[in-house]
Amino acid sequence: MNDDTCIIIAAYYESDNIGDVVRSLLEHNYENIVVVNDGSDDATSDQAQKAGATVLEHAINRGQGAALRTGVEYALRQGAEYLVHFDADGQHQAEEIQDMVEPVKAGRVDITLGKRFEKTGDIPASKKTVLYGAILFQFLITGVWLSDAHNGFRAMNRGAAETLEIKQDRMGHATEIIEYIKRYDLRYEEIPVTITYDEDTEGQRLWNAINIAKKNLFHKFFR
Amino acid sequence: MTLFSYLLVTAAVIMLGKTVYKYSEKKFTAIEALVWSALWVGVGVISFAPRLVSWLAGLVGIGRGVDLVIYVSILALFYLVFRLFDRVEQLSEELTSFVREKAIEDADE
To answer: Whose CB has fewer CB within 10 Å in chain A, the N or C terminal residue?
Structure first.
């Protein structure tokens, strides 16, 4: 059992995937699963609840960053010691959570970030180009050079979760988190993870990446 | 006075009336009402006495009165857009907080 660990999933129109994702987490003995339905009116909440997750409902869509922070706040109030950000679309593997959480539980770091290039084979070339661009952009904005960007798989201790006051409601939160790591001098480590790609779960396309960059730039200079 | 001057004065009087009305309805604070009233009175005065603007332009080292009006207008518009942007972001943050608290409260029940 992993009673002290809470898995947080932001879900938006994920009725096809969310049930399988929650079941795979339960199979790996993660019982504290919080799914935040970010305003989707399909069967996302039903599927997540039936599969065994606690479901929180955003009355209207506020974005992935906002949904993750809602899940984190709830988990902290429930007393979670370790928190994991996990994707709703099946891109992440439940069996790899252990690798992500272990350095945090051992007290070596405050937060771990998934990196995909070592374990994930066959990343589409277009995706790779966008990713390298995102890594460079992330470095220019935050001053932190990472080997990956925005895959959404993170594990952290309670202290780090309390520090990450995500203000960017939409996808820009991923870069914002790296900014917090730098600002508050959080200890971090990148852990190799496997990201599953297929046409249905292709999360962030080029247009999406441009939007993230735009939001981050605006946030940096005007907020 | 030209036809355009009359149009400007009419517009300024209407907007001044609206400002007073909004203040009486408590939709404007005293400061907001004062700033907007000053702006509309200014527009009215300039319409009646365009030479006043040329004189002001000369004082600050700008050749033509109309240039001064354009520069000041652009500055004022930039300031307004900035304020609006800030307010929209603030409202968005408040909305997210509200949606978040409601989601957590409902889950606790």
So the answer is: N
Q: Reply yes or no on whether the pLDDT at A205 is more than 60.
A: no
Q: Are A32 and A7 in contact (CB under 8 A)?
A: yes
Indicate yes or no: CB of A223 within 8 angstroms of CB of B92.
Answer: no
Whether residue A151 is predicted with pLDDT greater than 90 in this model: the reply is: no
pLDDT exceeds 70 at position A1: no
Amino acid at A147: S
Q: pTM of the full predicted structure?
A: 0.79
ipTM value, please give it. 0.82
Helix (H) or strand (E) holding A189: strand A188-192
User: Does A57 contact B at CB distance below 8 Å?
Assistant: yes
In the numeric block, which tokens belong to residue B19? 């400002």
d(CA A85, CA A78): 16
Cross-chain CB nearest to A59 (options B89, B102, B107): B102
CA dist., res. B80 & res. A93, Å (int): 49
Is the per-residue pLDDT at B87 higher than 50?
yes
Q: Residue A84: beta bridge partners?
A: A7, A155
Chain A hits for B88, Cβ within 8 Å: none
Q: Tell me how far the alpha carbon of residue A119 is from its chain's centroid.
A: 18
Alpha-carbon span A116 to A112, nearest angstrom: 13
Q: What 3-state DSSP class applies to A83?
A: strand
CA end-to-end distance (rounded Å), chain B? 70
3-state secondary structure of A82: strand
Q: Which residue in this structure is represented by tokens 């400061």?
A: B31
